[in-house]
Amino acid sequence: MEEKKIVRFGILGCAEIARKYVRAIGMTPNSSVHAVASRSVEKAKAFASANNLPAEVKTYGSYEQLLNDPSVDAVYIPLPTSLHLDWALKAVHKKKHIILEKPPALCVEDLDTILEACDNNGVQLMDGTMWMHHPRTPKMKAFLQNPDLFGDLKFVHSAFSFEGSDKFFEEDIRVKPDLDAHGALGDVGWYCIRAILWANDYEMPESVIAHPRPVLNEGGVITSCGATLSWQDGRVATFHCSFHSARTMDLSVHGSKGILQLHDFAVPYEEKSASFFSSTNTKSGEMDTFWGPRPNEHTVTVEFPQETFMVEEFARLVKKIRDSGGKPDSQWPSICRKTQIVLDAIKTSIQGGLISVKLSSI
Amino acid sequence: MEEKKIVRFGILGCAEIARKYVRAIGMTPNSSVHAVASRSVEKAKAFASANNLPAEVKTYGSYEQLLNDPSVDAVYIPLPTSLHLDWALKAVHKKKHIILEKPPALCVEDLDTILEACDNNGVQLMDGTMWMHHPRTPKMKAFLQNPDLFGDLKFVHSAFSFEGSDKFFEEDIRVKPDLDAHGALGDVGWYCIRAILWANDYEMPESVIAHPRPVLNEGGVITSCGATLSWQDGRVATFHCSFHSARTMDLSVHGSKGILQLHDFAVPYEEKSASFFSSTNTKSGEMDTFWGPRPNEHTVTVEFPQETFMVEEFARLVKKIRDSGGKPDSQWPSICRKTQIVLDAIKTSIQGGLISVKLSSI
Predict the structure, then answer these.
(1) Potential cystine with A15: which of A75, A78, A84, A346 (Cβ 3.0-4.6 Å)?
(2) pTM > 0.95: yes or no
(3) Does domain A134-306+340-358 have CATH number 2.60.120.260?
(4) Distance CA A17, CA A21 (A)
(5) SS3 B201
């Protein structure tokens, strides 16, 4: 009975990022790691051992074997983006619910194929945008939704960068055109785009235009770029993502009455505590030589890393389907799709020589 | 002899912002307010009285009278931008050194007329970009110039906004096409452009392009806009300036190794203390669930408001000319001109329907 309540995860591939989710699943009350698969059973066993997985966790030498295990409820797919379509479809056809690492697909057409399969198979999909699930995020949203403290949304800016090492630029899948073709845009830029949509209550922009001087490597993979998004009512958002600048994760949301600021929006500085800053109703000093008050720091303490909250939410949705005959939640796939559409439009803008790309309303 | 060492200022107009400079001049050891002028002597007297100026300070009922006073060494010109060309030229022809409130001119052609007159008359010009003179600014620059802590400059973002009141949008000179035609771009945007140029060691961008959805009032004055600047080597900068969002003054400078951040770059939260944040050599936690260290806060304590440091620097340059036969400093006029050129290019981009505007190298 207790066993029945747990969502049993299979891990499809032993990527570095999988370690984080194995740990998070282990920390999540309603979830457990049931099996891990790699392209060889030795690699799967080595991964299980390196991550201190209990002996009863199954290790498979192929992804198919894991998907054929009827005890697996859900799979976490941290494979390179170019493999997502194939393996997501295989998993979905086996009725496995999926957490698809971001970016979910090479293009929205591929993502739509996956989403259609999820619909047809009654399967839940969620992408790996972990910061959305941190308890800090709804607290920030409450500030943005407060008409007295924040007012009307006017402008968002986000930036996410880290400096890739020489090894990163030689070997990492995120700079390989045949693996993660979206590069910095799909990796760190994904979070910026999502943050902008999140702040805009997922209302799609009217148009996007990439900024001048995107950086592409010899394989044509974007290693740095930015864009401006705009809405018909005058809202504007900008972001910048890069593998060439020092690590920062900036998010500024400007309303008519208040400002939200933080510099660690995607991954908090600490695992058990995360802050954001709000300011509202500031006044200039009499002579304009000072102003205030300073922004307020709001700190949220948590017991677990943010991935745990994500797995818990996903497992909750899976249990509703598995145990109560519920339907898959449509919000997470919808948000995922909107983010992909904006990402695609920015690539189109870059490929077209920085053209403005209109987005049809969704 | 002591009197001789002081730079005697005339104040050309009793604008609100003039109060700040009257106070700053009074606090500056090498400067004093010698005279104030308004369009009526009553207004000048009322201003002198409201600002507790000593009885010996002269009050004039016309700007010409003040400029004809041979004891005035320098004038502070806080008039609306559309009056700058006329009054700056009149002041310069009377050999008065000038602090010209920003934005200095309606276009760089007008500014060049003023600068040429300054050259011909051996007169010092400085624009009123006060934050440049805060002792915090060179400390931030030292961080940006440190190859180990900051590395190579990659990206700058700046935003300066405040929410104009109903009265502001009805009456303020900054929304009147015949007075301060540059609106938010010339007012708060000027500081953002300057901050971007400052971070780039005043190297001019290759091109600028305005962001979609600038807001213009019925008189055609920009009340909100943004732009992206780019350099041939891949550096990019964005900014956003607005009269419609809550007050904030964001500056983020991203280098290959370090990040500079602050949210009060133009006017510090406190008159006697100002901070900035730097981060460098951050590391991701083992599982990418946290990172750090957090940015370091650097606090600079000062005795005076930043305008005092500006007046002091200006007066130092004036004294070199007046007392030692020195030549006007060329750095401040050059920086002023570059800022104006970028401002003009952004207006051209907006007026041209968001076209990319190339800047010829200067």
Answers:
(1) A78
(2) yes
(3) no
(4) 7
(5) coil
Positive or negative, the CA dihedral B201, B102, B254, A272 is: positive
CATH of B134-304+340-358 among 3.40.50.300, 3.30.70.890, 3.30.360.10, 3.20.20.70: 3.30.360.10
User: Which CATH superfamily, name and number, covers B2-131+307-329?
Assistant: NAD(P)-binding Rossmann-like Domain (3.40.50.720)
The CATH classification number of A2-131 equals: 3.40.50.720
Per-residue pLDDT of chain A (362 residues; tens, 9 = 90+): 344 579 999 999 988 889 999 999 999 999 999 999 999 999 999 999 999 999 999 999 999 999 999 999 999 999 999 999 999 999 999 999 999 999 999 999 999 999 999 999 999 999 999 999 999 999 999 999 999 999 999 999 999 999 999 999 999 999 999 999 999 999 999 999 999 999 999 999 999 999 999 999 999 999 999 999 999 999 999 999 999 999 999 999 999 999 999 999 999 999 999 999 999 999 999 889 999 999 999 999 999 999 999 999 999 999 999 999 999 999 999 999 999 999 999 999 999 999 999 997 55
Residues in chain A closer than 8 A to B291 (CB atoms): 247, 264, 267, 269
Select from B89, B23, B97, B12 the least CA-distant residue to B58: B12
Confirm or reject contact between B155 and chain A (CB < 8 A).
yes
Mark yes or no for CB contact A263/B295 under 8 Å. yes
Q: Burial letters for B303-330: b for 16+ Cβ neighbours within 10 Å, e otherwise? A: ebbbbbbbbbbbbebbbebbeeeeebbe
Q: Does B27 touch chain A (CB under 8 A)?
A: no
Q: Which residues, other chains included, contact A47 with Cβ-Cβ below 8 Å and sequence gap of 6+?
A: A14, A18, A36, A38, A59
Which residue from A minimizes the CA distance to B244? A256
